[in-house]
């Protein structure tokens, strides 16, 4: 028994002696009764707080010769690092301009687009309710005159058809997640968006071809003239029955449609090619600007073409036949394009500036 007590005493003495040999910071604070435990002054030696050893090998996210703060500041500004693959763009870890692009795309661009498209639809509906369909004022002759030949109509429908598909698929990319997705569900929306994107990419070249042919065919008829000023001053007779300003093959309003299609289509084609072939002609920052410009121009063109579709269909009697079978009622041609009728037939319309000719 005495031997056991001797062994225990030796162990206690050894433990006390070992605890006294430990550094003060490593000794535990023991609370005795109600005695408050002293506060431990613990400091963590973090790598960012230590002076950087210039000779030490850098960590993977640190550029040699820079502190980690300097490194991350450069990364945030889009500095490109070194990569071992051909794609040098992969060396950019953070592309801050992407935040600005997303803020504009999901903010002002989308918001103004809704107002622009909703506004034009509302104006067209109001115009139809107030003015109604624009009828042929004079007595119909029962005779027709060729307005456009088969090739011209083919170019028109190539441009118009491809534009409609591009407009619908493009609007889906911009607004579909908030409109179609809740209605049809994830799987149908994913399939629709996938095939819409494919159609958008390939039909974009058909649209570019249509714009080029449109320019070649009709640029000579769309040079502004003094008669356009008269047409605009009288608002094309759209708001007054029996008033038909003189016009050549294309009136002032149609010339706006023509130049909007040519200039806007060229801009859409240029920016679209940059996006279809990423990094082939532009940097990532330039592509973001092209995407915003592409969407903004497309929204403006959609608004203009909606007005064109309205006038060419339900808005004006006899207008659709021009791009249908190419033949229009002679009286319709006299009322809306009297100078062109004079050029083609040699007849003299009764009144260029007032009531329609009989």
Helix/strand layout:
Layout: H1 2-21, H2 68-76, H3 97-131, E1 144-146, H4 150-184, H5 186-218, H6 226-233, H7 252-276, H8 284-315, H9 321-324, E2 327-329, H10 330-336, H11 338-345
Antiparallel strand pairs: 1-2
Account of the 3D structure:
The structure is a single chain. The chain is an all-alpha fold. It folds into two domains: 2-91, no CATH class; 97-345, Up-down Bundle (Fumarate Reductase Cytochrome B subunit), CATH 1.20.950. The protein has eleven helices and two strands. It has a two-stranded antiparallel sheet. α3 (97-131) packs parallel to α8 and α5 crosses α7. The longest helix is centred in the first third of the chain and has 35 residues, at 97-131. It is elongated.
List its salient traits.
358 residues; mainly alpha; 11 helices
What value does the average pLDDT take? 82
CATH homologous superfamily identity of the largest domain: Transmembrane di-heme cytochromes, Chain C
Which series of helices and strands comes N to C? Answer: HHHEHHHHHHEHH
The DSSP helix count reads 11
Sheet with the most strands?
A: 2 strands, antiparallel
């Amino acid at each position: 028994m005495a031997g056991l007590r001797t062994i225990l005493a030796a162990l206690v003495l050894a433990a006390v002696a070992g605890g006294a040999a430990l550094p003060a910071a490593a000794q535990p604070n023991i609370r005795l009764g109600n005695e408050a435990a002293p506060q431990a002054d613990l400091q963590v030696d973090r790598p960012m707080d230590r002076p950087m050893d210039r000779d030490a090998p850098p960590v993977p996210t640190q550029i040699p010769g820079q502190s980690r703060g300097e490194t991350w500041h450069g990364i945030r500004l889009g500095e490109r690092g070194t990569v071992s693959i051909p794609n040098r763009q992969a060396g950019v870890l953070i592309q801050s301009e992407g935040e600005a692009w997303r803020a504009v795309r999901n903010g002002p661009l989308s918001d103004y687009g809704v107002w622009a498209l909703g506004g034009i639809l509302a104006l067209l509906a109001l115009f139809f309710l107030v003015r109604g369909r624009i009828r042929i004022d004079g007595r119909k002759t029962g005779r027709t005159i060729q307005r456009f030949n088969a090739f011209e109509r083919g170019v028109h429908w190539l441009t118009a058809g491809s534009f409609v598909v591009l407009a619908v698929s493009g609007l889906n990319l911009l607004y579909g997640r908030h409109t179609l997705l809740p209605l049809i569900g994830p799987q149908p929306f994913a399939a629709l968006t996938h095939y819409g994107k494919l159609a958008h990419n390939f039909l974009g070249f058909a649209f570019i071809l249509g714009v080029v042919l449109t320019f070649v065919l009709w640029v000579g008829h769309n040079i502004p003239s003094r008669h356009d000023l008269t047409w605009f001053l009288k608002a094309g007779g759209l708001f007054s029955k029996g008033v038909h300003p003189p016009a050549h093959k294309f009136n002032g309003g149609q010339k706006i449609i023509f130049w909007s299609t040519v200039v806007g289509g060229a801009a859409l084609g240029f920016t679209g090619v940059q996006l279809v072939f990423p990094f082939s002609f532009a940097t990532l920052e330039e592509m973001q600007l092209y995407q915003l410009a592409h969407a903004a121009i497309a929204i403006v063109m959609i608004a203009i073409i909606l007005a064109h579709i309205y006038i060419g269909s339900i808005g004006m009697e006899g207008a659709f036949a021009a791009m249908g079978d190419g033949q229009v009622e002679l009286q319709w041609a006299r009322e809306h394009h009297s100078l062109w009728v004079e050029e083609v037939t040699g007849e003299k319309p009764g009144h260029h500036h007032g009531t329609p000719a009989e």
